[in-house]
Structures are given as structure tokens and as C-alpha cells.
Amino acid sequence: MMSEAVVGIDLGTTNSSIAVLHDGVPEVITDHDDGLVPSCVGVGPSGNVLVGHKARNQAMLFPDRTVQSIKRRMGTADRIRLGSAEHSPQGISAFILKDLVARAERCLDADVSRAVITVPAYFTDAQRKATREAGELAGLKVERIVNEPTAASLAYEVSSEEAMKVLVYDLGGGTFDVSVVALEGGVVEVLATAGDNRLGGDDFDALIVERLNKRLESMVQGDSLRSDRTVQARLRHAAEAAKIRLSGAPFASIEEDSLTGASRKPVNLSCEISRSDFENDIKDLLDKTLEQVEKALRDANTKAPDLDRVLLVGGSSRIPLVAKLLQKRLGVTPLGQIDPDRCVALGAAIQAGMEAGLDVHSVLVDVTPYTFGTGAIGHVDGMYTRHKYVPIIRRNSKLPITKSELFYTEFPNQRAVRFRIYQGEDPDVRNNTEIGSVYLRGLNEDHDAFEEGLIFTYSLNLDGILEFHARERLTGREVSGRVEDALAAHDATFEEFDDLGELEPGIAVPTGTAVKMLLERAKAAIPNAPKEDVPELKRLMKGLKRASRHKESGKIDELSGELAELLFFVE
Ligand code: ADP
Ligand code: MG
């Protein structure tokens, strides 16, 4: 006789997943994939029903044979045409649930007939009832309908004895929800929710697609590829992949060969998108989510400092800018170590286990207990220093992980740069522990190489091995190395910096070019500079700006040097 399993299901707008307890520990069921099933249902050419990736892949090409975002229509009396049949929203959702159950039965070799299913906290009774019906249509006994933020909180804290207030920030593919919940002794209460059910990762993809379309238009004048569905489907796919890469790296390249419309000549699209451009594109949308965060806090009568935790949920919360903005706005470091797009299913499995009277343990995640970063020129506590700590892999990140950041040399003609590797949290590198360093020598002296900058990458694995890699973007010149025991506690050490007058030089400068920073420094120095030095400062600034505009690298070097020297005396 087959055993029976109680499962937790996250029936999402964009993606769904199913989780189960394994010796009391919740795990998402992966069937040789990442465990995420696109919430997409379609019919194939022969009338066969397609669920998940197969349906999603045909969505843009055959929109009339594919249904997406059915969750938005749950609880309505809509009839949805699919091939030759008509379905209710719960009927469509049942196809997704059946697919998830089949996956679980296959992988667990067990019967699956009882489930906990999650819904957004704002779902009405009608929407909850429709979700329950979808489960029943799929042959499940729905033990309970649970709120998504509740499930996410359970994934982080199975049984908290002390009372806690938690903010759950859930940014998915097409929806944004924020909830404030109170947790005590395994009981979770939703105090307030807010959000925008038309805001999410799809909008970010669309902004990248817009950039790509503009690019294409500049290549094939007049003739727009905007109305070509196949081209647009490919761009959409490439845009999403690039967006996901930008969560870990400062640039993502897009190569799409032979894009053609019906009778057109093939076009090859090859371009690069920078994280900073992408961040500029999405900043307004993220600001909107922050307004909703404030609304939820107001409605819950809670102030940011009273929050014990801020949880990142939903695939789009992996975008580093999200955590950065939340941290700035709330003053609390958001947690994201449990996979944001699987966290709700994991919590649902915990709830299912509790319902079944099982012994339930916490989600297992291997995280780094330390932050790893490097040093750069920049502001620390408002002071311009050579000791600014730039974190690259942050504490509590799930392992294994790879992250890169962009830097610039201090001067355009700089021939070498030294990247130091630190373990620690302090904004001043001198209070952190240096665990290694690497020189990248023989840098190109051309101004273009300076403008393109350098990429420094860290990869940290479960065995505590930190691999690092530094590369000059223009030339591809690179160097790499490793620290064997990066996860061990190290004694604090600090070695004085090299004298910059010698050849060894440089510390890299994060974001914005070194010239720009030098100019900012000069501007800031003017009010307090000795009167007799001001005209000279201004002259050098003006000259440097002009040289930089005209890319006169020799001149830039000369003036940067003079300006840096003068600043040394006037600051
Ligand atoms: P939902 O809860 O809305 O069903 P998910 O939580 O699965 O959806 O989120 C899906 C969205 O997350 C998609 O837009 C996807 O592109 C985005 N996403 C997934 N991983 C990343 C990542 N590493 N960086 C940025 N966006 C991501
Ligand atoms: Mg979700």
C-alpha cells in the first residue's frame, strides 16, 4: 500500500509550487527542475491540455489557446474558453493543481489527497471558496486555506514563543502584496494588508523589452518589429533572463540572432544592459511599493522600529535594490535567505504538517554568517576616505552564491589595482578582517578601459571556499584566486594601505567614475578651502570636466593628478 502525504500548495498568479514534509522538514518538490510551475494552462495543436512551462512557452504565440494569471479571476462568474471547451476559473486552476499533485505523487511515490492551499490575505470569501473548489475539482481534500503572508512567516518561524511583528513584502510576477502580521506561539494574525495587483516582475520585463525594441528600431529603420509576435516573445524571454542575471551581476548581455518578421531580412540583436540603467527604469515602480508598505504600517498601527522582522517574498524581491530601499526606509535589514519564490509553499507544508499532528521542524538553509566585501574610495560617515567597505556577498545569503560588482580605478592611466577581500560588517574596512587580496596588473591605459571599469566577483560555496575573480571589462584581462576557509572566524587584522605615490596603487572606486567623484570632492571642498586656492580649484575642475567630455585621456590624467594633490592640502 502506498503511503499518504499531506502537501502544501502555493497557487500563485505567475508560478505555483508544492511542498511536503520530509522527516518533519519542509521541502519543495522538484521534478528535475527548480520546483516552480508556471501558472499557465493551454491546449496544444491536437487539443491536449498543457500545464506549466509548455503552456507558458506558447502563451505569446497562441494567446487564444493559453490562459495566464487565472488567479485574478477566481471568485468571478467568468467563463474561460480553452480550445473547444469552456471552463470556470476554478476549473482552470484545477488543471494546475492536478499537475502539481501528479508531480508530487511521481516524486514521492505516495498518494496525495490532502492539501493546504494558500491565498493572498486580501482574498474575499468568494475567492477563498473558489480556491477550495479548485482543490476539490483536482480531487483534493482541502484541509485549510491559509494566507500567503502567514505561510511565509511560518517558513521563517515555526513556533515562536515570544510575540513578534513581521512585515511580509511579497513582490511576484504580476502582483505586489504587503502585510503586517503578528506571530505568537505558532498562531499568526494578519493585522493589515495593502498592495497593487497590477505590479510585478512582468512590468520590469516590459521595461527591458522597451529598451530592446528601441534598439531594434535604430537598427532597422522604419520597419518596426513590435507587431511581430514571435520576435516579441523572444524579446520577452531574453528580457526576463537578463533581469534575473542583473540580480547577481552589474551587467547582462543579450544576444538574439536572426530576429525576423515574415519577409524581413534577419537582424542580430546584441547589447548589454547595466544594472544601474535597469534600476533607474524600475525605481518609480519600487517607490510605489514603498508607499503601500507605509500604508500597511499605518493601517496596522505599527511603526517601522516596532517590526521584529521584514521578510522578502516573491521572485522579484531578489532584485538587490528592493532590499536596499526597504532597509533605507524601515531601518530593518530584510531577510531573504529562504527562497522567496518557494517560501510560501514551504510554509503551507508546515501548516499541513501541523494539521496532521506531525512533528514539524524549521526550513533548512545554509547561509553565510558573514558579509564579504572589498575596500574602495568613498564616503564613510560623511567623510571621504580610502577605507569604504563595499559588501559583495551579504550575511545570511543562501549558499552557494555568486555576486559581482562594478568598480573603477582611481585614475584613468592606472596600471594596477589591488582588491582586498574582507570579512565583516563595518562600513569602514579597517574594522573588518582582511582575509586575502589580489592584484590585477597590466591594466589598459586607454580612457575607454577606464570608463568601462572592472568587475569583481565572489563565489562562496557550502564548504566555505570563497573564489574571487577580477576582470578588466574592455580587455578581459583577469586574475582569480581563492580563500579556503572563508566561513571560519578570523582574527581582525589590518594592514596599512600602500603608498599611492608608488606604482602599486589603487583602490577601486564603486559606482560613478573616479573623475566624477574627484569633481564632487572638489565641489564639496570649495566652501572651506583657503580663499587663495579657490580659483585654482575651479580652474582644474573646469579643465577636468572639459577633458572628460572630450575623452582626452592624457589631459584627464594630468588634471586629475593636480586636482587630487591640491585637494590633499585643502580638505
Ligand atoms: P507569483 O507569486 O506572482 O506567482 P513568483 O513569486 O514566482 O510569482 O515571482 C515571479 C517573478 O519573479 C517573475 O517575474 C520572475 O521573473 C521574477 N524573478 C525570479 N527570480 C528573479 C531574480 N533572481 N531576480 C529578479 N526577478 C526574479
Ligand atoms: Mg506568490
Structural class: alpha+beta
Average of the residue pLDDT scores = 90
Helix content: 25-40%
Unreliable stretches (pLDDT < 50, length at least 5) are 498-506
CA gyration radius, whole angstroms:
27 Å
**Per the principal axes of the C-alpha atoms, what is the gross shape?**
globular
Number of strands: 26
Strand content: 25-35%
**How many helices does DSSP assign?**
13
Sketch the major β-sheet.
6 strands, mixed
Q: List each distinct ligand once.
A: adenosine-5'-diphosphate, magnesium ion
How far apart the termini lie comes to: 80 Å
Description:
Helix 11 runs parallel beside helix 13. The chain has helices spanning 53-58, 89-108, 125-137, 148-156, 201-219, 229-246, 275-299, 320-330, 343-355, 447-452, 514-525, 534-549, 553-570; strands at residues 4-11, 15-22, 25-28, 37-38, 40-43, 49-51, 66-68, 80-82, 85-87, 111-119, 141-147, 164-171, 176-184, 187-196, 251-259, 267-274, 309-313, 372-380, 383-393, 401-408, 417-423, 433-440, 454-460, 466-472, 478-483, 509-510. The protein has 13 helices and 26 strands. The chain is globular and about 80 Å long. Strands 1, 2, 3, 4, 10 and 11 form a six-stranded mixed beta sheet that branches. Strands 25-24-23-20-26 form a five-stranded antiparallel beta sheet. The chain is 33% helix and 29% strand. It is an alpha+beta fold. Strand 8 (80-82) and strand 9 (85-87) form a beta hairpin. Adenosine-5'-diphosphate binds at residues 12-15, 36, 172-175, 200-202, 240, 243-244, 247, 314-316, 318-319, 341.
